[in-house]
Design goal:
four-stranded antiparallel beta sheet; 673 residues; single chain; elongated; alpha+beta
């Protein structure tokens, strides 16, 4: 007989009291929520207070406070709204909400909480019956031997025993013992899950591209290689040559096929190629597409949205980074380039993408040649508009080469690096609230803290599990790791209009449960969920839960009316502001017209002024010319006067000589002689 030592975690009610002590309640029935308000939001603190009172005291029987105090009124309303909820149900819900708000509380509380150790006998049919305390059953850890007697399951709400004897706590990575011939270590490969089987195709090993197809059976954890058969020519694939090795591609399940889209190859083509592997005939084929196909690339994101693939970014064969957006209709095999409005993400590769509510495409992280990113971008696929919303919570560090997979409304991100070291945190983004939180952290240089790994979601024992494979962090890996998330959402969310914060708080609180949930309508607010505990199946408990739900509905309705009233006031103010803005724009338009008129007049006056200046310049030139002519005229006049004088003198001389000769006057020349 072999004995296995398993850490089971605290059973109820001890787990509840440990959670209450960690949250800040002092253990007395009259404990207030003051110690909790510093750790949680007001809505969560009030809900925890009400559940604590319900679990320790019972139904609210104290009268409604008469003194006007918003805090006391809110506390009383929250507690009274729980009605006849059973103590066991309140305890479990308290723990679930705490786990949702602070996933790592138990590990931090373990410093002062003694961890019980359970002895598990191998290959024996043992079962621990529930312990009854105060009339409420609290299930203890139970050991169940499976039919084949080869593996053991130790289970409560927080600790389960995985297949093949490996114990796994929720939100912790484990390495399940796999069998069969393991694939060659690699990274930048493609991965997809089809009917409890994980398929791995291609990748990069020591700088060489691969083209093998491997499969891991998730029920037996056994590896095997898929023997690809030689295909025949078809309308879809006129050629049946072997598929070239590739890396950085995307592997998507579509109907009974695996689609390999894009990727780096030794001899790249000009455009993206779409290869299809038929799971029934085990043959590869190249699908013929229509329209303008995008340029070939690797490291892009490919997201299945309805019957279409949305391709974003990547790096082409010339190592140029891209941020273009393309859509491939899988029914018509037609390409379409999307010209979305808004500011798109910067060019990048090795990012991750996910679709939320079949409408919003989320892009996170990635890298360029010089840096890595941790920004989050959202594309509205209906409006075709990019936006960059504000992220909440523990925003992840920049990374590229990481892997992501959505589970309900939660998007899990694993691995990646920042050109210096691998990222050790596994984080989750609530795609409804855009709030980040850390799921777990690995230690050391392990494959989970590497780039180029793959991440898929599968099913094991009826629960969703995350499965990672491969990666590179200084060495190539072919290891498989499994995580069973507690953050998973059992409600498939749809696109909703903004709802009141109180409704969101109730949603966030109930998201932590992995119990069965039913839905009911509340006017126009959408749906809120009624929590039905696993181990409370009696009809009276359902009636009590319905009464509790009715009270919660009434409270939410009153809050809704207040918010609607505030919203109507805001709308009126917005309408008034719009009118004032329109009037201001009209005045601005009139002033602008006047300004344009004045500018026209000024331009005309400037033109006249310029002409006058030209005329003045011409007149000045003419005046200078006239002065010159005047001087020349005066000079000519003087010359004329001198000439006239000389002429007169000659005439006199000429006249005097004749009469002198007649009178006997000697000639001047004779005198001179």
């Amino acid at each position: 007989m072999a004995m296995a030592r398993a850490s089971s975690g605290l059973a109820y009610p001890d787990r509840f009291y440990a959670a209450a002590s960690y949250a800040g309640f002092d253990g007395s029935p009259t404990s207030s929520s003051k110690g909790v308000s510093s750790k949680f939001s007001n809505d969560v603190a009030l809900l925890l207070y009400a559940l604590y009172q319900q679990a320790t005291v019972g139904r609210c029987t104290v009268p409604k406070p008469r003194v006007w105090s918003p805090v006391e009124q809110s506390k009383w309303t929250s507690w009274n709204g729980l009605g006849n909820m059973a103590a066991a149900e309140a305890m479990r819900l308290f723990v679930k909400i705490l786990e949702e708000e602070d996933p790592g509380w138990y590990s931090r509380a373990s410093d002062f909480v003694a961890e019980p150790v359970v002895d598990v006998e191998m290959n024996h049919n043992t079962k621990v019956e529930p312990v009854t305390e105060n009339g409420n059953p609290f299930p203890e850890t139970k050991t169940i031997s499976p039919e084949n007697g080869s593996m053991l399951e130790t289970q409560d709400k927080d600790v389960v025993l995985e297949g093949l004897g490996s114990i796994a706590v929720y939100d912790q990575w484990i390495a399940p013992p796999v069998s069969g011939q393991r694939p060659k270590p690699r990274y930048e490969h493609g991965a997809a899950v089809v009917q409890d089987k994980m398929y791995i195709f291609g990748g990069n090993h020591n700088g060489r591209y691969l083209n093998d197809l491997q499969v891991l059976d998730l029920r037996s954890w056994t590896w095997s290689k898929v023997e690809v058969k030689s295909g025949t020519e078809s309308l879809e694939s006129p050629s049946t040559v072997p598929l070239p090795p590739c890396a950085g591609h995307s592997l998507i399940q579509w109907e009974n096929k695996l689609l390999s889209i894009a990727g780096h190859t030794k001899d790249p083509s000009e455009t993206i190629q779409v290869k299809a592997f038929d799971l029934q005939t085990c043959t590869w084929s190249t699908l013929k597409t229509y329209g303008k196909a995008p340029a070939s690339r690797g490291g892009q994101s490919v997201t299945l949205v309805g019957t279409s693939l949305v391709i974003f970014g990547g790096q082409d064969a010339k190592r140029s980074l891209l941020n273009d957006l393309h859509l491939l209709d899988l029914e018509t095999m037609t390409w379409d380039e999307i010209d979305a409005v808004g500011v798109p993400p910067s060019p990048r590769s090795d990012h991750t993408a996910a679709v939320h509510a079949e409408r919003y495409l989320l892009i996170f992280g990635g890298g360029s040649h010089a840096t890595c990113f941790n920004d989050l971008h959202v594309l509205d696929l209906q409006a075709m508009e990019w936006s960059r919303p504000t992220q909440q919570g523990d925003i992840p560090s920049p990374r590229a080469g990481h892997a992501g997979v959505p589970v309900g409304e939660n998007w899990f991100i694993v691995g990646g690096g920042d050109n210096k070291s691998g990222v050790s945190e596994t984080v989750v983004l609530n795609m409804s609230t855009l709030g980040w939180s850390v799921v777990t952290t690995v230690q050391g240089r392990v494959p989970l803290a590497s780039e180029g790994l793959s991440l898929v979601v599968g099913s094991h024992n009826g629960e969703d599990v995350l499965i990672s494979f491969g990666g590179y962090n200084g060495r190539y890996s072919n290891e498989v790791n499994v995580l069973k998330p507690s953050h998973k959402s059992t409600l498939q969310t749809k696109i909703m209009e903004p709802v009141p914060e109180s409704v969101s708080a109730v949603h966030n609180a109930t998201n932590a449960t992995r119990d069965v949930e039913s839905e009911f309508e509340v006017g126009q607010e959408g749906k809120i969920r009624e929590i039905v505990m696993d181990d409370v199946d009696s009809e009276p408990m359902k009636i009590k839960t319905e009464e509790t739900s009715e009270r919660l509905i009434a409270t939410l309705k009153s809050e809704k009316e207040e918010l609607e009233s505030s919203l109507s006031k805001e709308k009126m103010q917005s309408h008034q502001l719009k009118q004032e803005l329109a009037e201001a724009e009209t005045r601005n338009s009139d002033l602008y017209k006047e300004l344009q008129s004045v500018r026209g007049q000024l331009a005309s006056e400037q033109s006249r002024c310029f002409k006058l200046e030209v005329d003045v310049a011409e007149l000045r030139q003419k005046l200078q010319t006239m002065e010159t002519l005047q001087k020349e005229l005066e000079l000519l006049q003087r010359q004329k006067a001198a000439s006239e004088q000389a002429l007169n003198a000659k005439q006199r001389q000429s006249s005097g000589g004749m009469w002198g000769w007649l009178a006997g006057t000697p000639d001047e020349k004779a005198d001179d002689a």
